[in-house]
Amino acid sequence: MKAIIANSYGGPEVLTYTDQPDPKVGPDSFLIRVKAAGVNPVDWKILAGYLDPMMYGHFPLIPGWDVAGVVEAVGADATEYAVGDEVIGYVRKDEVQHGTFAELVAAPVRTLAPKPASLNWRQAAGLPLAGLTAYQALDRVGVTFGETVLVHAAAGGVGSLAVQIAVARGARVIGTASERNHEFLRSLGAEPVTYGDGLAARVRELAPEGIDAAVDFVGGGVVDVSQELLKDRGRVASIADGEVKAKGGHMVWVRPDTADLTALGTLADAGKLTVPVASAFPLSEAAEAFRESMTGRTRGKIVLDVS
Asked: Where does this protein have coiled-coil stretches (predicted)?
């Protein structure tokens, strides 16, 4: 199979498009013919070695955790899907080596869910990691109908999905973004505010009585700002602030979860959730996709077209 590999930690320049052996398929796994794969900031952070203190990485390393594709073979005790089924997955394993930036990937059943019929392959590939991150962060702070939630980095890949999920739950959403993304946020159902100095005051203008919950997808001190506004200072979750637990909030490290991923697909097929795709690259140009991701300025998801 064709795949993107790295033989050492480094930047996008260490990525190579090459031939690799087809994956072995475990008893509770499925072999997926990859149609598209989502690119996430964690991918270039893994490549840079940032996650090495917490996860074993083995070389040659195929990056990628997001996938949308078709079942090509089933493991000895894998019964949930059949050959030909269309699936999506957040294929994070306990160690990093056999990722989704390849024509084939072996995916444990716990990482998969049916592909939403309403999403094309690119959109479907961009949903799992970002969608699960948003979904699980909102769950962690208990966002429910009628509440006001503040979403930081609301125009990004995770934030734009969090806005839609919260709106689908009947919440009022205030989202931070640059002014150029304000109309985009309005189209998703959020009330936009500009991030940066004075953010708390701008949010207070929209919500004088404060907010019920906040989710942080950017870091940089926004947990502290959120807690100035929260009625309950503990109802803040972050994927980017390493001190959030010490501040009384919640750290979220997204987990593979078939039920959550299926729920996201149900929202998509009900017309309540779409996946904005910022750009798409052929698999062979994964290094360019990484470089775009590293700018931190994309609106929506970056994906790789594989087959």
From this structure: none
* Residues 190 and 208 sit within 8 Å (Cβ to Cβ): no
CB atoms within 10 A of CB 242: 9
* C-beta separation of 229 from 150 below 8 A: yes
Tens-place pLDDT, residues 1-45? 999 999 999 999 999 999 999 999 999 999 999 999 999 999 999
**DSSP letters spanning 127-155:** SHHHHHHHHHHHHHTT--TT-EEEEETTT
Of the pLDDT bands very low, low, confident and very high (cuts 50, 70, 90), residue 299 is confident
Largest Cα–Cα distance in the chain? 59
Q: Which two tokens stand for residue 174?
A: 């205030």
| Rounded distance between C-alpha atoms, residue 226 and residue 255, angstroms | 24
**pTM for this predicted structure:** 0.97
Walk me through the domains of the chain, giving residue ranges and CATH numbers. Answer: 2-127+276-305 (3.90.180.10), 130-251 (3.40.50.720)
Contacts of 110 (CB under 8 A, 6+ apart): 28, 256, 257, 258
Of the chain, the end-to-end C-alpha distance in Å amounts to: 11
According to DSSP H, which parts of the chain are helical?
A: 41-47, 121-126, 128-140, 157-168, 182-188, 199-206, 222-229, 258-269, 286-294
Radius of gyration of the chain (CA): 19
Q: List the one residue out of 92, 117, 103, 118 whose CA is nearest residue 31.
A: 103
Distance CA 216, CA 72 (A): 38
CA distance 234 to 146: 19
Q: What are the residues whose beta carbons fall under 8 Å from the beta carbon of 117, sequence distance 6 or more?
A: 269
Q: Which of 136, 123, 128 is nearest to 105 (CA)?
A: 128
